[in-house]
Amino acid sequence: xxxxxxxxxxxxxxxxxxxxxxxxxxxxxxxxxxxxxxxxxxxxxxxxxxxxxxxxxxxxxxxxxxxxxxxxxxxxxxxxxxxxxxxxxxxxxxxxxxxxxxxxxxxxxxxxxxxxxxxxxxxxxxxxxxxxxxxxxxxxxxxxxxxxxxxxxxxxxxxxxxxxxxxxxxxxxxxxxxxxxxxxxxxxxxxxxxxxxxxxxxxxxxxxxxxxxxxxxxxxxxxxxxx
Length: 227
Hints:
By secondary structure, the protein is mainly α. The protein is built from 9 helices and no strands.
């Protein structure tokens, strides 16, 4: 091994050490409560030296978020390769793949979707363009299901997919946060949620009840989940 190659490998190993320590601290203490000094203390490294790898705490988060979304993207790609030709089967596998990701990568899932204090990935959209592509691909599945007569929804594809994702997301969060009753199997609960949501989109939409205009109370900014 040459000198330059050894230096690059050592640098990559140090970068990995920083990211792993930061991820665990972000999960255990919350992103807002972690400083670069805390990360440095965890790995017994000087705070100033971390700047040789990352310019800020936000940059560390963006690196971790990209890793997490890349893992999710690969998961979805694999499940689609094994999926059948029916659009609803492919849609079901995509949504189930999201749930399986939450089970296999709970730390990344929590950091990506649960911590409200993390910076918005929209601040670095070029870096996360593949996330937009992943969402668009999933939404197109809704259109394919509708064209095949497998879904009766008149909702826009993006809205319909978001509705389904919210249901599976709720099951994933309940499991991750240990909020599933002990007599219930978390995976069976997630499957039932997915079945019910898909069945709802297969049936014609009932007439909407008349609604009264009400004033919505806004959540304080500090409690909103950023994306």
